[in-house]
Amino acid sequence: MARAELDKQPSDVRRMFDAVARRYDVTNDVLSLGQDRRWRHDVIEAVDPQYGERVLDLAAGTGTSSQPFADRGAVVVPCDFSLGMLQVGKQAKPHLPFTAGDGTQLPFADETFDAVTISFGLRNIVDPLQGLRELRRVTRPGGRLVVCEFSHPTFAPFRTVYMEYLMKALPAVARAVSSSPDAYVYLAESIRAWPDQQGLADLVAEAGWQKPEWRNLSGGIVALHRATR
Hints:
Layout: H1 10-20, H2 24-31, H3 35-47, E1 54-58, H4 67-71, E2 75-80, H5 83-92, E3 99-100, E4 113-119, H6 128-137, E5 139-150, H7 156-177, H8 183-193, H9 197-206, E6 210-217, E7 222-228
Parallel strand pairs: 1-2, 1-4, 2-3, 4-5
Antiparallel strand pairs: 5-7, 6-7
């Protein structure tokens, strides 16, 4: 898969993430200039996991985003549809209960989790609205949703530079550090095609979540959306 088609095929996206799994965390760190660590910290603070709470970390990949929840005493379940990612994660973090699952049909019972979160994965679900509905289904009443996703920079001149230049440069940089650089052509274009902050908030509300709100990170390169069940 080289382009971010609206009718993206789950099998293609799965193979893409299987291919980048080996060096995924290193590549993300390089491409984000280390900001991904700060973004992960912001996600933890937004979820505010309490000791013993059950947290679903969807699109968890290798579990880098999941470990901090466990460190806070939460019972975290890292879930992803890429077996390659899960295998890499399980080797590094065997204590975490990695679970294979499709975001449009989660393998969990209704009202299982106190909080659910997904970072940089919602746009890769074939039907993001259905993904948000599934996240709501498995969340208990009063539970929390936190979505961390690429968005639209708020400063117009920078937004133009970011969209037109940085997105074109991302695949070239990835060639130097990634195990499957072509995948980053898709990732770059999926970022460009993704809704802005208000657009995602509207999608969250359409899925049935209450009081959606967002906070911009890094000038709107990333937005942190929150809502309640």
